């Protein structure tokens, strides 16, 4: 851990905020992608079995 | 050489991006990790800013991507308006939330840096104000997408909003410059060496920027795929209802 | 075109058209500000120009959704689309009618309300001039925003969200011009910029509004 001096709070909090936001964005995008992919598969399978 | 327009085929787009996505994601993680760890642990403190200089590895790339995301949306909107490729419209839609997050990161890290350095969280400085306005533009754009039910209407209207908005965003940039003199430092990256940040900060910054670029590309690919699939699903369901 | 303009103005002035609404809103905003910031006249006179501009902008905003909404509901917008008049002209005339029924009264009311905010004497000329130059741009931008949201049931709030960022340059130059006028400085630069924005919006935005209307009428 480098010595951040008296500005440790500012540096750490900005890294924390940014990483949380980025990770949240990635996780949300990923989860929605998986969900939609599965839902589409379901719909397509159902159509195939109907036909 | 295959034409670029082949990727306007949704199927082809999904197949290709499926192949590319893992590589881009790995590159994004690698570059981000390298740039940020290098920047955080192995760069010296600035003689005036102390350790707060380390915020630059987040602030500058996110600000850069906030603007680039809007430019990408503008290009995608123009392609949609001119050539009517659905993938293009969906890519613009997929990029908007990424742009918002980048804008928020840039504003938040800027505020956190500004508190100890300028003695204030917020100043009505031209650059800060422009970013706030950009943020509002993003919000309006996303809200319009969400509000309209018909997909093609939404794509058309948001594309026109994006084009008109770009003109006004540029206009605001200069209006704001006229309105108030700045506190913000000049460009961190430019060809003019004098203006640049020092070399020790420069190289990790470049790596970090590359990481943000790859992350943006990966996210836009992923989210565009999702939008394509979601729309296909809606179309299939609508067709089923028609037949029933 | 002139027939359409006269029709729109007549509809707006008639009862229920909401002609006085924007004006009343402007009055209320201006009256509320001293309650919010305190009655000291030197403070008020310093911020008077800005408040009058913000008030005019908000009054313009609340009346925007009426530009196309009524014509959309009763189907006369479809008739206008099939009329020989090009859609661009319709959009421009609608913006002009909005300006005549909302913007112009605001310009005329501003000096009266300036008295309430103890606006310095030398500020009246530049203030009225800046509003006169700036409000047409507000109307044209607003017509674009109204065209974007015309098909939506609850478009009012979205309309504000879309239009407010677009108003930023006009507001900056307009308020700057009025402020410089109050301070007795030279205000020709912001005046020219403001006039430029207004001319640009009048020349270009009807095309964007017309494109949007065509999409919405599809």
UniProtKB/TrEMBL annotation, chain B:
Coiled coil: none annotated. It is a multi-pass membrane protein. Keywords: Cell inner membrane, Cell membrane, Cytochrome c-type biogenesis, Membrane, Transmembrane, Transmembrane helix, Transport. One of its GO terms (molecular function) is heme transmembrane transporter activity. Residues 21-184 form the Cytochrome c assembly protein domain. The chain crosses the membrane at residues 20-42, 62-82, 94-114, 126-145, 157-180, 200-222. Pfam families: Cytochrom_C_asm. One of its GO terms (biological process) is cytochrome complex assembly. One of its GO terms (cellular component) is plasma membrane. Its main location: membrane. The keyword Magnesium does not apply. It is found in: Cell inner membrane; Membrane. The keyword Transmembrane applies. Belongs to the CcmC/CycZ/HelC family. Required for the export of heme to the periplasm for the biogenesis of c-type cytochromes. PANTHER family: CYTOCHROME B_B6 PROTEIN-RELATED, HEME EXPORTER PROTEIN C. This is Heme exporter protein C. It comes from Roseovarius atlanticus.
UniProtKB/TrEMBL annotation, chain C:
It is found in: Cell inner membrane. Its main location: membrane. GO terms for cellular component: plasma membrane. Signal peptide: none annotated. It holds the Pfam family CcmB. One of its GO terms (molecular function) is heme transmembrane transporter activity. GO terms for biological process: cytochrome c biosynthetic process; cytochrome complex assembly. It is a multi-pass membrane protein. It comes from the Bacteria. Keywords: Cell inner membrane, Cell membrane, Cytochrome c-type biogenesis, Membrane, Transmembrane, Transmembrane helix, Transport. The chain crosses the membrane at residues 12-37, 43-64, 96-121, 127-150, 157-175, 187-213. Required for the export of heme to the periplasm for the biogenesis of c-type cytochromes. PANTHER family: CYTOCHROME C BIOGENESIS B-RELATED, HEME EXPORTER PROTEIN B. NCBIfam families: ccmB. Belongs to the CcmB/CycW/HelB family. This is Heme exporter protein B. It comes from Roseovarius atlanticus.
